[in-house]
Amino acid sequence: MSLKVTVDLNTCQGYVCCVMEAPEVFDIDDAVGKAVLLQERPSEELRSKVEAAARACPARAIRVEQD
Asked: Which of 2, 38, 39, 49 lies most in the core, judged by the most C-beta atoms within 10 Å?
């Protein structure tokens, strides 16, 4: 199974918690102040970081799914 990560940009408030938890997967677009996905389908090795980023998001803008 592989991971699929999505960010709801209507909900994202640019708190940067995702970047702190998983900088390999998330960044912030400075122009709009919202999260940017660097990897929509990160490797299994990054699962714990991605799940931590989703839990840390105050806006609950990150969804992690299994494919």
From this structure: 49
